[in-house]
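P.,

For your records, the input lines for the assembly:
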Amino acid sequence: MTVREVRSARNQAHSLPASAMRRTPAYIICSPRPRVGKTLIARLLSEFLLLQRGGAIGFDVNLKEPSLLDFLPRTTETAEIDDTFGKMALMDRLIVPDGTAKVIDLGFHAFDEFFTMTGEIGFFKEAARRGIAPMVLFVADSDRVSARGYTMLQATVPPRALITVDNEYVLRGEIPAIYRRGRQLRLPALPAFLNTYIDRTSFSFTGFLRGQTDRSSELHQWIRDAYFSFRELELSLLLQGG
Amino acid sequence: MAKPAVIVVGADKGGVGKTTVSRTVLDYFSANNVPTRAFDTESPRGTLKRFHPDITEIVDMTSTADQMKIFDTLNTAAPSVTVIDVRAGLLSPALASLRDIGFLDAAKSGQITFAVFHILGPSIASLDEIAETANFMDGARYFLVKNFINNTSFFEWDQATYNSYFHRIRDATELTIPKLNEMAFEQVEIASVPFLKFVANKGPKDEAANYSFVLRGYVRHWLANVWSEFDRIKLTDIVGKEKDKPASKSAGEK
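Structure tokens returned:
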């Protein structure tokens, strides 16, 4: 993607109808399992939103794993949901329709607590009322814990807001049947050496797109594909009524 | 005119959540469009009045004048439903007074609907209270309320003992009030508004407030659970009112 293409993508975003900008997206990247790529997806998505919308806030509820805060410290805040104070600090921000996209990197240890809480406080219903568009990006794994977590989400999250992330690095191309019916977002696996490359905390996906002249490189293509998928997600907000 | 209904909420022990339960009852009736008046017997300063000032009057249940104020107006008062939040230690004496003035006989003969919400504490003394209160329950709907709101664990109870007390009273019904998040409970206390107004993010005078969405969510969820208990016992039917839909479904969505 050239600088011109980046600009054009941004212009396209800016030229979306006003209704598209009315709803404030809140992306929740989650899994009840560690090391399935949550933070990678949160990083990619945050950088995409920063590029497309000109701003996004990340919330890192993932302090027990390598986390979003390490990669995007300027746009990420830490959050805790262990006690009511922490829940208030996070959720009272999330429910504000301020037009700024939010990305939550939800650690595996906080999965049950977070979604039990959102169910109890009626988050999804209130979000719909206030013009917030929550999108739950569930990073699937083939184990029983993940299947149980997904079933739990199906009971509390509206189907349009629940997206299964098929991370090829985790599922090896075989997505279990339980996830096949709902919405999906596919993330191809990167070769190991490129994983090491993007795992550097100083690495920026958008920076790479801007700086790299060779558009045919594997990483370039991979980032563009991921951004394209996210753009589809953003567009789906339009179809859901702005 | 509708048959008057009196609901007494009480316990002989303090701090078991009588006023909290009274508040949920008032909110429930409000949500179901049942006009209600309330009496707070914590004279001279009442907690219930702080939350529901427009419909609550503070009375001294031991004074004849105030007893007249409550019971002589049952047939004439516009709201046919009366909720009485009885001060700690006053439940048995209050019931004895009601017997003495012939109120219990009127309830027995069907002229008045009478229900008692007996809030149970964790101590074994609560079980003795049941036995004592049971003597007055002929003609009344008797509800034994296990209140978990202040994290009560009914640790002193042996279930068999409880059952033996419970079964002594014909038609006694058990109710459970679940626990509410402490911080949410505290914030409603500070706001001094009915639970319903807190959920609707409104201040005492219906002005817009700025309560935490999370805490409001906890209160809404809790209130819906409490109201589903009231739906279960058909509380609006008991007081002789029709009900459109389960109140628990619409907790806070007014």
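Two observations worth noting. The longest strand of chain B covers residues 113-120. The beta strands of chain B are 5-10, 36-40, 56-58, 81-85, 113-120, 141-147, 173-177.

Regards
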